[in-house]
Amino acid sequence: MARPQTDIEAGRTALLEVVDDLVRKRGSVDISMTDLAAAAGMSPSNLYRFFDNKEALLEAVAERFFAEKIRIMVEVTESDLPVRDKMYQYFARRYLASVEQYEAEPELLKSYLEIGQQHFEVVRGYVDLGDHYLAIIVAEAMDQGYFQGLSIDEAVSLINQMLHCYTNPDILFYIGTTKLSVTKLAMIVDAVFQGLGKKIATQSVPGSHMKIVS
Amino acid sequence: MARPQTDIEAGRTALLEVVDDLVRKRGSVDISMTDLAAAAGMSPSNLYRFFDNKEALLEAVAERFFAEKIRIMVEVTESDLPVRDKMYQYFARRYLASVEQYEAEPELLKSYLEIGQQHFEVVRGYVDLGDHYLAIIVAEAMDQGYFQGLSIDEAVSLINQMLHCYTNPDILFYIGTTKLSVTKLAMIVDAVFQGLGKKIATQSVPGSHMKIVS
């Protein structure tokens, strides 16, 4: 008889903590199902009840790693904030979440980033998801007359490049949190809105979705 | 009797080629003076006539690695180009020099970048030198009314962050030369000038160094 879903979920969560411990001890060295079973004090066949295979385990690790950032992106894009504030929050809150991980356990973060590099096929979907949410904000800004002459994809790519220091947690290890700051991030977001694409001819350009209702 | 300087210089250049070969074979693994002497087919005491110690060798490696970029920065800052073009050239030409290294021998570049990380004390001076030349361009732009409300250091730091994808050659390995392009780089430089700092009140603000000569 299959265990109730909640038990499986609880078991997975506990096993991901064991993965943390293994990564703390061994760094980004590849972890096999056998290693994880041994560290968790269970038989490999028992472990397979929680994760079908190594890929499923890696996907669960990635899901947990990105959960907070997805929560932030959903919250920000669904909010009623002005579009410039949305973009600021989109980058600043994710950046601060990375800083928190970095300051709590830099070595653990570094190892997970290396694991992510080694298994980029698992990470790619989350990168695309980030672009998807940024595209929603960019489209809203375009409706207000920003980024004229650029396609959504071009604007997303340029904005990602201009804010790269605040989205790639690896940069924390290069540049550090003294030179990086949310104050600077806000200035860069301002430069994005003021400077990216052709200038807006008028103060406010009505977007194509706006209809005159009178 | 000491050899003429030119012989020593020629020997150093040849030895740096041997270092390339060692790095090609072994990656970023630390190279000792003994290893280099063996690979060059000379005695360690002979090698010490070319490089006083390991630090001197590393400094010579860094000097050669950064030579082209320094040449570019000197040329651009000394040119008569308009300041916006200067900044574009400052970033674009260095970026293209990195792309050339990346496309010729990606593994060799990656290994040298890793060596640079391991011996950051040797690299730091070159990073500071880059900031020095960028500060010259920023000061010129400020004299023309750009970046109002920012100090030179703040502007240099923000601009470095906004262009980070085009200055850190490591990013070539993450993002690749499909998504990075000098066209996008030019758009980011435009956004820097149009969007960074307070807006310019008038079309042209005379700089403090300008004197009315009539």
Automatic annotation (TrEMBL), chains A, B:
Known PROSITE patterns for this protein?
HTH_TETR_2
Residue intervals of the HTH tetR-type domain: 9-69
Q: Recall the GO molecular function terms of this protein's record.
A: DNA-binding transcription factor activity; transcription cis-regulatory region binding
Q: Which SUPFAM superfamilies match?
A: Homeodomain-like
- Where DNA binds (residue ranges)? 32-51
Q: Which domain of life is it from?
A: Bacteria
Provide this UniProt record's keywords sorted from A to Z. Answer: DNA-binding, Transcription, Transcription regulation
Q: What PANTHER family does the annotation carry?
A: HTH-TYPE TRANSCRIPTIONAL REGULATOR BETI, HTH-TYPE TRANSCRIPTIONAL REGULATOR RUTR
Instruction: Name the chain's protein.
Output: AcrR family transcriptional regulator
The protein's organism comes out as: Sphingorhabdus rigui
